Amino acid sequence: MPQQDRSIRVWDPLVRVFHWALATAFLAAWLSGEEWLVLHVAAGYTVLGLVSLRIVWGVVGTRHARFTDFVRAPSTVLAYLKDVLTFRARRYLGHNPAGGAMVLALLVSLALSAVSGLALYGYQEFTGPLATMMVHAPHWLGHALEEAHEFLTGLTLLLVVLHLAGVALASLQHRENLVRSMFSGCKQQELS
Amino acid sequence: MKQWIIGGLLAASGMMAAGLVTGSRYEGEREEHGKRFGFSLQDVAPVQNARYTEECGSCHFAYQPGLLPAASWHKLMGTLADHFGENAELDADTAAQLRRYLEANAADRVYAGRSRGIANSLRGMAPLRVTETPYFRRQHEEIPQRAVQGNPDVGSFSRCAACHTRAGEGVYNEHTVRIPGWAGRGD
Amino acid sequence: MKPFVLVTALLAATASPVLQAETVTEVQNRYRTGGAGPFHFERGERLWNSRQFQERRCSDCHGADLKQPGMHRRTRQPIEPMAPSVAQHRYTDPAKVEKWLLRNCKWTWGRACTAQEKGDLLEYLKRL
Known about the structure:
With 192 residues, chain A is mainly alpha-helical. Chain A is 71% helix and 3% strand. In chain A, strands 1-2 form a two-stranded antiparallel sheet. In chain A, helix 4 (74-85) packs across helix 5 (97-125). Chains in contact: A-B, B-C.
């Protein structure tokens, strides 16, 4: 796998497979919307499964996959963002503090999107694990869930856009292809 | 290599867990024989019986069999001489043929599209009208009276095709709804 | 060869109205063997327009002009015109004719029509 002798494995296969599978699942869910409910629901379940998996892996996984590696206090994140904007940001092998915050934000947003969707599925379609709970739910709750699901998924999309921007910016600033790294798993140990 | 295996196993078990959870107890109560998995891109599997369309679509919209449970279809086919106040008599052979088609493709017999949800919502009930299923009621709870009963271009919730522009294909999603004489989409 | 094809084509083109007339005649003949007849246009017309059971009339759904489509008064489903001159395909299946006469007599008149009444009605309709 290493292309040069200074290449190092950063992202393990699970992290990579998870990342691209999640992107695909979210895209599928976004595009299928109301029209292809079967696909939308399948994508939603996949998102939920993947997010759960990542949380577990974030506790027991490889070094750069663990939350302890990249989750930082808000003050650290803000300081890092300031550095980014002044072109002074340090390069990290794993997720930098801002990237780490984005990971958390996305995981939370996706999880809430999926759960609200599941509740809505139970309410509107009388199907799924939350159906029994939602059968007698009042109308206002059903309506609120619909709004919540729309909001949360829109928020996730916004985060995705910011994520893409962040990846692009970091790639430019440190002159490395972060997208390729998420495929190969490898980065240069040190940048010249 | 080891990590691929671990990763793959974890992913597989994660998704399997999700899948198991979906086949949950709430749907378990319908575990009888004769249920099949149908895959339908449409919300309800479209009618695929020319005889049904001809005989049952000549006076009203040809309601897809997946909109009602088998028990409802059975009742309906047994009372054609007084079909909601109309006479819809058929010869015994045709009636039997159609009843078989309807029951075999009923909401609680084929897991296709939203039929599953329709069947789930019933919890044993077998109403004669699609509009009386809890599923239908929930989907239409936000529609005001004046958009349907009070709307001269519609008149009744039973006239699916009046607003659902692709009802004949089994497609009912909100984006295909246009209430005649009513500004905006059906939402 | 060519004249043969032409003649066949012409015959085929005219077959439909021939079929239609045959269908109605076939049905009426069946009534005749049962003892009904002769059938009269005026009687059929009168039956068609009379108010029967619960004030119902054939024209309630089929409309006043049988060359125009009608409308089911409850479901608002359009009904093709009754006049064979406009919709001859509707009279090509005797079983279908009988089916609708059975149902619609029962609904409109509260009872099945007699063979005589059906024959008269068909006599009226077939000339439109």
